[in-house]
Amino acid sequence: MPKTGRSLVGMVAGFIPEWRPVFDRNGGRLHVGIRNRFTEQLTVGGKSIYPEERAGDTYEVTIYSNNLYSGDIRATLKDVQARDEHGSPKYRQYRGRQIPIYIPPPGMGLIDKVRGEPRWTVWLRVSPRFTTEALALLRDERSLFLAVHELKKGRRRWVQNLSLQTTDPAEQ
After folding, report:
1. In a domain, 4, yes or no
2. What are the tens digits of pLDDT across the range 108-134?
3. Which residues contact 150 (CB under 8 A, 6 or more apart)?
4. Model confidence over 9-55: pLDDT tens digits?
C-alpha cells in the first residue's frame, strides 16, 4: 500500500480508510490492485421547532456517506419486486401487458425516540456530495434548519426526505 495514500488519508478529518483488494478481468488477464473506500460520518444536533408537540425536543442526526460507485451496489430492481405467498414475483395487467409490481423501500433512514427523554436520534445514509455540501453550510455563521420528512410504518419511523437549508421551512 502506498505510504503517501495512508498519510494523506490520516490528514483528512472524518474519513475512515478501508483498504481491500480488487480483482479485475481485462482481456483474459487478471489484474489485482487496491481500491480505497472512504466512509464519512457527520453528526448534527439541534432543537426542534415544529411540530408543536415536539417543539423544544433535542434531535441528533447522524449522516453516513461513502464514495462507493454504482458497481459496488448489489441491489437490483428484482429485490424490491412484490412477491406472492409462494415467493413468485407479482405482476398486474395494464393495457394487455403484464407489469411488475414494486414495493419501494420504506425510507432512507430511521428515527428513534430516546425513552424517557425529549430526545430523538436520526440515522441515514446519503451521497458524499450531500455530506460535502452540508459541511460547507455548517462552516457558515448563518442559522441552519434541518427539515426531516418522516413516515411511520408500524412501530418504526422512517426518514423519507431530508434537507439542510438556511431558510425556515415553516415560513415557505
Report:
1. no
2. 899 999 999 999 999 998 888 888 888
3. 107, 111, 157, 158, 159, 160
4. 323 334 444 444 444 444 544 444 545 566 788 898 889 988 889 98
Q: Is residue 3 part of a domain?
A: no
pLDDT at 75 over 90: no
Geometric angle at alpha carbon 102, from 99 and 106, rounded to 5°: 165
Q: How many CB atoms neighbour CB 159 within 10 A?
A: 21
**Cβ pair 82, 98 in contact under 8 A:** no
How much is the pTM?
A: 0.64
Domain that holds residue 91: 9-21+32-67+75-171
By DSSP bridging, strand 97-100 and strand 119-125 are unpaired
> Do the domain assignments include residue 1?
no
Taking the C-alpha atoms of residue 16 and residue 4, their distance in angstroms, rounded to an integer, is 16
Decide if 146 is inside a domain: yes
Number of domains in the chain: 1
pLDDT at residue 141 is higher than 90 = no
